[in-house]
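About this split. The held-out portion is used to measure sequence recovery: a designer receives only the structure tokens and must propose an amino acid at every position. Recovery is the fraction of positions where the proposal matches the reference. Here is one held-out target exactly as it appears in the evaluation file.
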């Protein structure tokens, strides 16, 4: 009985952490979009956006998330922005369609973005079809340890968001 309650509490904490990470990711994307003057690339017809809790649950169970947790990401979240934003979310040229976050506990050495990207791309087995942002952050830190943009092939396209 107590074990079940503890497990349910841990699941609730994980879901809350995933939802919080999702809010941060969406905030970064919207801030970058507001500062960016890139042209929009239509992604075709998309389904209506799903709820944030649904996206957090999908993101924590998406291909690559379990592999990132094994790498040391306490909270790993893979979010398809087209699914999150629906028709209102045209992805602009040079912006990622998928946001991959890796959050590690304070006091733990975080993996590099290159290492997290390698694990993610192996996990998805070439299924990426648009640019991907990999962000690694240590709990309690004000800025990410790294945040880089990758092509669907896995090629490193440099820091993200890009400066002026």
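Reference sequence for scoring:
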């Amino acid at each position: 009985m107590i074990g079940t309650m503890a497990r349910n509490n841990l699941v609730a904490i994980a879901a809350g952490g995933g939802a919080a990470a999702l809010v941060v990711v969406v905030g970064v994307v919207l801030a970058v979009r507001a500062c960016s003057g890139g042209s929009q690339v239509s992604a075709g017809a998309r389904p209506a956006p799903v709820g944030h809790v649904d996206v957090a649950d999908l993101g924590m169970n998406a291909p690559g998330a379990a592999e990132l947790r094994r790498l040391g990401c306490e909270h790993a979240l893979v979010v398809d922005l087209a699914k999150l934003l629906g028709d209102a979310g045209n992805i602009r040229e040079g912006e990622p369609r998928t946001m991959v976050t890796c959050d590690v506990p304070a006091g733990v050495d975080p993996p590099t973005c290159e290492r997290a990207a390698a694990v993610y791309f192996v996990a998805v087995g070439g299924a990426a079809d648009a640019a991907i942002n990999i962000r690694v952050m240590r709990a309690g830190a004000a800025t990410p340890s790294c945040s880089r943009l990758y092509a669907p092939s896995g090629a490193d396209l440099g820091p993200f968001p890009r400066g002026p």
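Annotator remark: Residues 2-35 form the longest helix (34 residues).
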